[in-house]
């Protein structure tokens, strides 16, 4: 391998930690932009596009094997213009070329994504993911592939042009839509059945290994159960079981960091035991909200603990001093995946007392065979109740022992060389974590978590909101890149969730400003929203995503926030935008409901009575009333407590006037009851909605 100090390429001035990881490769990398694209056209060289991200393990492997090798780099430089993209900064490029990869290979994509583009029109003609440095697993060596692709392009230019034309036609057709005449609840039931058919009865979750958390699908089951409580007949306890059992299994598995809190990306096995160790902000934002909602629905103390540990980890390790949330932690440390997290029994014994070790080892299987090479990743084998019986102690003593041992081990672990942290701040992912912190703060009455979310929101407004438009990313004081649909709508969603914890002057106005930008610059006249704005760089496709991926669909969240804002403000434009989004994406919703779970939330709130509660008065009374409405699991309820002295309110909120004492305005859809001024009557009114009771 080379001495990295010998080389510096065109990535050296970028902000992305992932791109900077490759700035001293001998590969003549360029960032995506005019310099690279013009060079490809001018020299008539095909483009080698490599897409990855900082926490990606196989991205690091391919970098070490190939991109750091001078001979491989020389061949890449000779035959191609090489462009490196951080998929987190440029999800627009990643979405397009992942789709193209799937069309060309008929296989799912992933990272690293390796795509070869024609030089003049940037259309892919060959695609793959990870390629090894020598032939294995039916894959050619990367250098062999490079030569083959170059030769293939030279010999088959006409065939490639024809293929490219067909590919462009297919990409364009993906945005074609025929609006549904009417919305029906059928996909809600279909999604529930699809999830049950794929449910793992033994280990929880859906499908076989590898297992991903899929928070939107678990939320769908919780909401389905909650919805059945509002109708005649028995609540769908089966839906509740699938959600709760999966959440319990994930919480006790090795995918959850049992010492520090927070979830890894996915489990490589069906038992949730061994994770892919990268920890992503977006997963944890969604899971924090999900576990908080599940606690509100069931009262399960395990779910409260998971929320507490996750929120603590986020505030300790993932929040910048300026307020924004960082993006991710690597899977690797010291060049090895998971090294930071795993233990030997001897290492644990050296830290904790003999009595605590006896309990800890039984809890986490240190008395069993190693589960990660010759070491142990912590996975809960025995519950507190089982340990209490085994050691003839009460549960409180067991919990105290586990907390004591966990604290001691975490202190030791933090002295190890930690995984790298991607410290760029992404607007969209911050929106997801703001939402997660806010939902958890509301359900579990944790003001510090709301404080954390407000700090992040203030950072974004201060740093990434410029001249009436959002920027997508910030690092080291440099904010740049046009924001995407996800940036706007995830942030609006976070603001709306935060407002349900406490009112702050200016927050709702900011959400409305963001919504107006979305309508002006992202809306498709056929319904729904494009991923990029109308003044964004022209790419080979302008996606209009409906399917949930690792994060919820931008159109799903857009339909939800426009529906909620429309009900809240009495704004018909917003309600129409929400309905038209659902109608324009109806074919996808109908054919694969469980893959469009975020759109199903919006569908549910469009079709069924949505409750809006506005409370006016003075503190602390209005906060007490808000907590009464907010803590139970009532997913079709939106509650604001607005101080009486707020002078001007937007839309129909202006008609929710303060009175001499605390007053609540309760509306179901477009029907509002008489103002309520008595707390007991208010509480009774909540109960009568039929959506607040626990198990």
Structure description:
There is one protein chain. With about 700 residues, the chain is of the alpha+beta class. The protein has 4 domains: about 5-175, 3-Layer(aba) Sandwich (Glutaredoxin), CATH 3.40.30; about 185-335 and about 420-605, Alpha/alpha barrel (Glycosyltransferase), CATH 1.50.10; about 340-415, Arc Repressor Mutant, subunit A, CATH 1.10.10; about 610-690, Glutaredoxin (3-Layer(aba) Sandwich), CATH 3.40.30. It is about 50% helix and about 10% strand. The chain has 26 helices and 20 strands. The strands form 6 sheets. Strands 1-3-2-4-5 form a 5-stranded mixed beta sheet, sandwiched between helices. Strands 13, 14, 15 and 16 form a 4-stranded antiparallel beta sheet that branches. Helix 17 (about 425-445) packs antiparallel against helix 18 (about 445-465) and helix 21 (about 555-570) runs antiparallel to helix 22. It is globular and about 80 Å long. The chain starts with 16 loop residues before the first helix and ends in a 7-residue tail after the last helix. The relative contact order is 0.09.
């Amino acid at each position: 391998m080379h001495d990295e100090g010998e080389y510096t390429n065109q990535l050296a001035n970028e902000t992305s930690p992932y791109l900077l990881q490759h700035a001293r490769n001998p590969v003549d990398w360029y960032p995506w932009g005019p310099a690279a694209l013009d060079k490809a056209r001018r020299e008539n060289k095909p483009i080698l596009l490599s897409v990855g991200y900082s926490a990606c393990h196989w991205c690091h492997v391919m970098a070490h094997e190939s991109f750091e090798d001078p001979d491989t780099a020389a061949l890449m430089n000779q035959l191609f213009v090489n462009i490196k993209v951080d998929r987190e900064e440029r999800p627009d490029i990643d979405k397009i070329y992942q789709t193209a990869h799937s069309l060309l290979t008929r296989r799912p994509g992933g990272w690293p994504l390796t795509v070869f583009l024609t030089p003049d029109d940037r259309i892919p003609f060959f695609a793959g993911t990870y390629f090894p440095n020598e032939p294995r697993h039916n894959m050619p060596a990367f250098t062999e592939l490079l030569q083959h692709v170059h030769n293939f392009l030279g010999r088959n230019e006409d065939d490639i042009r024809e293929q490219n034309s067909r590919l462009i036609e297919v990409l364009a057709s993906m945005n074609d839509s025929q609006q549904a005449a009417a919305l029906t609840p059928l996909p809600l039931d279909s999604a529930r059945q699809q999830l049950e058919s794929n449910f793992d009865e033994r280990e929880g979750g859906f499908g076989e290994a590898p297992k991903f958390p899929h928070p939107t699908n678990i939320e769908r089951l919780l909401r389905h159960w909650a919805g059945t409580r509002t109708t005649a007949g028995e609540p769908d306890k089966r839906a509740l079981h699938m959600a709760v059992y999966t959440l319990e299994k994930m919480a006790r598995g090795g995918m959850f960091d049992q010492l520090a809190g927070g979830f890894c990306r996915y489990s490589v096995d069906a038992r949730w035991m061994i994770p892919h160790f990268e920890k992503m902000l977006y997963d944890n934002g969604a899971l924090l909200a999900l576990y908080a909602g599940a606690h509100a629905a069931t009262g399960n103390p395990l779910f409260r603990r998971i929320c507490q540990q996750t929120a603590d980890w986020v505030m300790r390790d993932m929040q910048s001093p300026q307020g924004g949330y960082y993006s991710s932690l690597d899977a690797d440390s010291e060049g090895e995946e998971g090294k930071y997290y795993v233990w030997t029994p001897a290492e644990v014994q050296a830290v904790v007392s003999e009595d605590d070790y006896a309990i800890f080892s039984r809890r986490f299987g240190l008395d069993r065979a190693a589960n990660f090479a010759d070491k142990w990743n912590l996975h809960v084998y025995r519950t507190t109740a089982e340990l209490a019986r085994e050691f003839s102690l009460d549960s409180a003593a067991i919990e105290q022992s586990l907390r004591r041992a966990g604290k001691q081990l975490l202190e030791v672990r933090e002295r190890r060389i930690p995984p790298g942290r991607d410290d760029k701040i992404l607007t969209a992912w911050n929106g997801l974590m703001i939402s997660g912190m806010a939902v958890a703060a509301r359900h579990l009455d944790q003001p510090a978590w709301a404080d954390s979310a407000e700090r992040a929101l203030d950072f974004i407004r201060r740093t990434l909101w410029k001249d009436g438009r959002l920027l997508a990313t910030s690092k080291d004081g440099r904010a740049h890149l046009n924001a995407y649909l996800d940036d706007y709508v995830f942030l609006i969603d976070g603001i709306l969730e935060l407002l349900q914890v406490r009112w702050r002057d200016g927050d709702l106005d900011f959400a409305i400003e963001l919504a107006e930008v979305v309508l002006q610059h992202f809306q498709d006249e056929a319904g729904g929203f494009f991923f990029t704005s109308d003044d964004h760089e022209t790419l080979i496709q302008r996606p209009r995503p409906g399917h949930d991926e690792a994060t919820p669909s931008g159109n799903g969240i857009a339909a939800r926030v426009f529906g909620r804002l429309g009900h809240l403000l009495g704004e018909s434009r917003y309600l129409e935008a929400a309905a038209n989004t659902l109608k324009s994406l109806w074919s996808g919703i109908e054919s694969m409901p469980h893959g469009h779970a975020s759109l199903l939330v919006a569908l549910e709130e469009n079709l069924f009575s949505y409750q809006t509660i506005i409370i006016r008065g003075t503190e602390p009374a209005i906060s007490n009333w808000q907590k009464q409405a907010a803590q139970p699991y009532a997913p079709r309820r939106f509650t604001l407590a607005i101080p009486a002295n707020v002078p001007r309110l937007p839309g129909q909120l202006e008609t929710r006037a303060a009175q001499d004492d605390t007053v609540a305005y309760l509306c179901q859809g477009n029907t509002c009851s008489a103002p309520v001024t008595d707390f007991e009557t208010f509480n009774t009114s909540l109960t009568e909605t039929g959506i607040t009771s626990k198990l």
